[in-house]
Amino acid sequence: MSLISSYGATKDRKIYGNCQVFSPGGILMFRCDDKKANWYLNRNLADIIKEKPLTIKLKFQPQGLGNHNKEFGLTEMSNKCVCCGSDEYLTRHHVVPYCYRKNFPISLKSHNFHDVLSLCVQCHEKYERQADKLKDFLATEYNAPVSGETTQDRESIKFSKMAMTLLKEDLTKIPTKRIKYLKSELKNKFSIKRLSNKKLNEISGVRTTILNKTHGQIVMSQITDIQSFVEMWRSHFLENNQCQYLPRDWNIKTKINHAERLKAH
């Protein structure tokens, strides 16, 4: 159960809502969950066509037709693990890890429904260990440590060492003048009047490294063909799983161009 808790999964969790959203002209634009469908209904921007599954028609003319005529996006999604078919303890799996996707151009960050698949906790955890291996490969390929690019904060190190010195059990070996100097420096630096052991412990444990760039930032700064990068992760996912229940029309080659945004006039 600890594994289930770490993923925040519940036994009957549903990943896909499969509500249908139609344009005023009757064109199926996209599918969404109840929350999004009700967003339109609560603002009187749509009418209910059917209760189950919840189907709505927009009252305003959108600037685009969403996923209409897209390669993927209108398919009814099954609430089951795409690998083993289980319908319990489902999680959202991002085929392209978030550490990379968050560094995509803004136009490609949203509407990534194609690369969010449902996995049960067990299958999710099993694949993540394989995904870690690909991250390690990318770390070497692009000189991008998984922990990121860091530098030492010399000032923090200096004060941390001062605090550790004052926490030594036997201060008799340290000149009194030196002890007074260390305490004075720490009090001035941290604007405190009394230097307790608790405070010294806090200072001694202060972070002494600065994260300049994350692993994902370093990798994506060198990727010129994002489509190929995404396809690499999709292929890796298929190669390391027995995907018997993928959504219909899910394809490694599906383009990552973002879907058209909807705006009420």
Determine Rg (CA atoms, Å).
27 Å
Distance separating the two termini: 49 Å
Largest beta-sheet details: 4 strands, mixed
Strand content: 5-15%
Topology:
Blueprint: H1 2-7, E1 19-22, E2 28-32, H2 34-42, E3 46-50, E4 55-58, E5 90-94, H3 98-101, H4 106-109, E6 116-120, H5 121-141, E7 149-152, H6 154-166, H7 176-190, H8 197-204, E8 209-213, H9 215-220, H10 226-239
Helix pairs in contact: 6-7, 6-8
What does this structure look like?
The protein contains ten helices and eight strands. With 265 residues, it is of the alpha+beta class. It folds into three domains: 1-14 and 88-144 and 225-257, no CATH class; 17-76, no CATH class; 154-206, no CATH class. A four-stranded mixed sheet has the order 2-1-4-3, with helices on one face. A two-stranded antiparallel sheet has the order 5-6. Strands 7-8 form a two-stranded antiparallel sheet. A hairpin with a 5-residue loop joins strand 1 (19-22) and strand 2 (28-32). Helix 6 packs across helix 7 and helix 6 packs antiparallel against helix 8 (197-204). The radius of gyration is 27 Å and the shape is elongated. The protein starts with a helix and ends in a 26-residue tail after the last helix.
